[in-house]
């Protein structure tokens, strides 16, 4: 959105159907870093419109002529446990794929800064991938938080987003984070710009 002025949505279903060779497991989950590596290998990912979400495993039908966005050089993994590095990445690079542990009660979140004393703190505990889009400090409590986009739709939480406590590795949120090294959207570049970008 910052780079191009419009907000595109890419195909989750392509990752579900096609990224199994990169240690992703369809509807049983996977890691964002592996998804970025698949997109790099495949030569891109299609749009949500061209390859819509079905909420079930399917056969891979990705087509080269529908490629919408490409990732070069795979993923950059944020150092596990380093929330300052994660903060720097969100500030300088943009949204970062993060993972954390969802435990009982999280699905009922509606507002405020989420915190839990029952979730784990290790990479082995994470079970849900989301997107860190910002950070801040709650004016009422003084609690530092990550501002995160969930994948459960705009009717969940705070219009699809939530805040989670920052700087304490809440629910292992600092353990398994990554972002693409370089991306470009095919729709936004001329052939000359694309050639220059890839050199």
Question: Any overview of this molecule?
Answer:
The protein has about 200 residues and is of the alpha+beta class. The protein has 2 domains: about 1-75 and about 180-199, Alpha-Beta Complex (Cathepsin B, Chain A), CATH 3.90.70; about 80-175, Cysteine proteinases (Cathepsin B, Chain A). The protein has 4 helices and 8 strands; from the N terminus they run H-H-E-E-H-E-E-E-E-E-E-H. The chain has a 5-stranded mixed β-sheet with strand order 3-5-6-7-4, with helices on one face. The chain has a 3-stranded antiparallel β-sheet with strand order 1-2-8. A hairpin with a 6-residue loop joins strand 5 and strand 6. The radius of gyration is 17 Å and the shape is globular. The mean pLDDT is about 90.
Tell me about the largest β-sheet. 5 strands, mixed
Strand order in the largest sheet: 3-5-6-7-4
* Cα distance spanning the termini: 24 Å
Number of strands: 8
What is CATH's topology name of the largest domain?
A: Cathepsin B, Chain A
Q: What fraction strand?
A: 15-25%
Number of domains: 2
Low-confidence runs (pLDDT<50, min 5 residues)? none
């Amino acid at each position: 959105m910052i780079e191009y002025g419009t907000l595109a949505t890419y195909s989750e279903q392509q990752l579900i159907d096609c990224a199994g060779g990169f240690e992703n497991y369809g509807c049983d989950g996977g890691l964002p870093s592996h998804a970025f590596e698949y997109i790099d290998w495949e030569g891109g990912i299609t749009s949500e419109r061209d390859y819509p979400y079905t909420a079930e495993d399917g056969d891979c039908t990705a087509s080269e002529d529908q490629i919408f966005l490409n990732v070069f050089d795979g993923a950059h993994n944020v150092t596990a446990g380093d929330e300052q590095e994660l903060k720097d990445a969100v500030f300088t690079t943009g949204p970062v794929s993060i993972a954390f542990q969802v435990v009982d009660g999280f699905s009922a979140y509606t507002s405020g800064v989420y915190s839990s004393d029952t979730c784990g703190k290790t990479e082995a505990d994470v079970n849900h991938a989301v997107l860190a889009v910002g950070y801040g400090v709650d004016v009422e409590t003084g609690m530092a938080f990550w501002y995160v986009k969930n994948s459960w739709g705009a009717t969940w939480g705070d219009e699809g987003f939530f805040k989670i406590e920052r700087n304490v590795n809440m629910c292992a949120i600092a353990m398994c984070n990554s972002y693409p090294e370089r991306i470009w959207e095919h729709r936004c570049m001329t052939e000359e710009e694309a050639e220059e970008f890839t050199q």
